[in-house]
Amino acid sequence: xxxxxxxxxxxxxxxxxxxxxxxxxxxxxxxxxxxxxxxxxxxxxxxxxxxxxxxxxxxxxxxxxxxxxxxxxxxxxxxxxxxxxxxxxxxxxxxxxx
Length: 98
Hints:
Layout: H1 2-7, E1 21-24, E2 37-40, H2 42-51, H3 54-60, H4 64-69, H5 71-82
Helix pairs in contact: 2-5
């Protein structure tokens, strides 16, 4: 039963979204089409791509542990986990996207 519960949460914010998106840990444009994937809520997925370019994701953030440890994502994840209700939040592109 626990296995099913693990499958029903976003792998980053650990919330239960209505639907999931698939995030390629190495972006497809950077050669990760058949590589490892993560199941994320749409908001975490948008936030990740709003903060980081695909080149940065491919070079520096190739695993969920690296993403969770990143200071820019840590603040967002801390905030997102405290939110009640739906997991769909507004996301804006970062001015200092790298």
